[in-house]
Amino acid sequence: MVSAEETRKIAKDAFIFTYPLVLNYRTLYLQAVDPKAKEYVGGFGQYRHYGMSSPANHDIVTPNNDTPYSWAQVDLRSEPWVLSQAPTDGRYFTAQWDDMWGFVLDNPGAVNDGNAGGSYLLAPPDWKGSLPPNIKRAIRGETFFLGTLTRTGLSGPSDLPNLEATQKGYKLEPLSAFLGTAPPAPARSIDWPVWTPEVEQTVDFFKVANFMLQYTVPNSADKATIDEVAKIGVAAGKSWEPAEMEPAIRRAIEDGIADAWGLIKDTEKSVKDAGKFFGTREIIGTDYLNRAMGVYMGIYGNVKQQAVYQTWPTDSDGNPLNTNTNSYTITFEPGQLPEAKYFWSITMYDLPGRFLVANPINRYSIGSQTLGLQQEADGSVVIYVQKNSPGKDNESNWLPAPDGPFFAVLRIYGPGEAEQSGKWVAPAAVRVT
């Protein structure tokens, strides 16, 4: 019999350990299971492509118009699937595939593979077959469901037809269809737990965790933790009935969940480099907190080899950024623009919503792809961050801001070594009025 005190500690550990499974279930459920969800992509094996966002779009926070998203989920229980990418026109694109643990498995696309296109096998964790002809490599995680956030570079509204043509070149199909062979017997139908937002905060969290654990192949590195959490009933496919628990044990589990949330929130406050939260099993290992933080702070976040993000939490004097009465400049000194194989940009969002900002020139980001971006005589580049135009002479370098606080994100695609390592740091936002 596990004491209430020990139960609380184990519940905290179990929450952190299984948090990625539960949060990825939320995404999988909304995208591939619930046709009434606004996020629904059409079921498993279906891509849903998005174009440019506008200030009217509030589906997701901090939307990114540089690389519109394409989402898909695949069910590998009966057979592998195949991702095929048509040749592209040299633009940035990457199909990031994650398993339900939040491990970034691979990024077929421009950075890793060039623009000639190709096919890739999406394999279940227990797959031991030979790689079929005309397939570059296998992508395999530790779960029987995989998901992708595919990003495709866009250089502005005039590039939309080319973006859509590139997105149409992404294809998903079962391996049997790719090979032209008879399909295997379908996998058994699933009674999916209904996702509701409160699941994340209550003891029902572990009902979803137990459901998802049965669709994983345990990694030997996790054995000690798997054995520990099983002591309180967190185990693959096991029934989870909080109503049947002793009151003291249920309270201990609730307290353990609260302890886990406290750890997550405290960790969030000290984050300086979120890039460490995203990567393969080899990179993240058994650092379950880092793995959970990646899903919490940015599910399907980019690895540094693909893109690096930097933000401006304050101005150069340490004050909060607010363009109600203030104006700012961000000055890249000569030779100090970020190194980017593809492009870089700064996108403006309002606060607290973190949505795009309406403005008279319909400019939501500025960067290397901005037509007419000007250099000063000494080769520096000055970005004007303010709510009103800085004047016609400087409007080419104007990043329109809201009438109030704001949040800006610098994104660098195909970053250089200094950008990846953190040695290159974006210049400060300097208040000029």
Any idea of the CATH class of the largest domain?
Answer: Mainly Beta
Label the structural class. Answer: alpha+beta
Helix-strand topology string: HEEEEEHEEEHEHHHHHHEEEEEEEHE
What is the number of domains?
3
How far the N terminus sits from the C terminus, by CA atoms, comes to: 66 Å
CATH topology of the largest domain: Immunoglobulin-like
Largest sheet: 5 strands, antiparallel
Helix content: 10-25%
Return the CATH architecture of the largest domain.
Sandwich
Low-confidence stretches: none
The rounded Rg comes to: 23 Å
Rough outline: globular
The tally of beta strands, per DSSP, is: 17
Give the mean pLDDT.
95
- The CATH superfamily of the largest domain appears as Domain of unknown function DUF1254
Report the β-strand fraction as a percent range: 15-25%
User: Helix count, per DSSP?
Assistant: 10
Q: What strand line-up does the widest sheet have?
A: 1-2-8-4-5
In terms of quaternary structure, what is this? single chain
